[in-house]
């Protein structure tokens, strides 16, 4: 199963952080027009990364449901990284 097995539960934080920066850039675009383009690019990047992470998570869930359940049961592993 390779890298999918080691997918950390916190990987979705990348999507959240990218989305936050995109929103801030969108709100500040009145000061610099380049921020409008940056905001759009970051929003698309967040959407693409989200789609990839959902696909990887589903692959992991289908390939190793016991491993996913074990990750969810271990509170420290599920809430960190």
H/E topology pattern: HHHH
- What integer value in Å does the Rg equal? 16 Å
Number of distinct beta strands: 0
Instruction: Name the average pLDDT.
Output: 83
Low-confidence runs of at least 5 consecutive residues: none
% residues in beta strands: under 5%
Characterize the main sheet: none
Would you spell out the secondary-structure blueprint of this structure?
Blueprint: H1 13-27, H2 34-63, H3 65-73, H4 75-79
Question: Would you write up a description of this structure?
Answer:
It is a single chain. The two termini are about 20 Å apart. The relative contact order is 0.17. The protein has helices at about 15-25, 35-65, 65-75, 75-80. The chain is elongated, with a radius of gyration of 16 Å. α1 runs antiparallel to α2 and α2 (about 35-65) crosses α3 (about 65-75). The chain has one domain (about 10-80). It contains four helices and no strands. By secondary structure, the protein is an all-alpha fold.
Gist?
The chain is mainly α and 81 residues long.
Protein traits:
mainly alpha, 4 helices
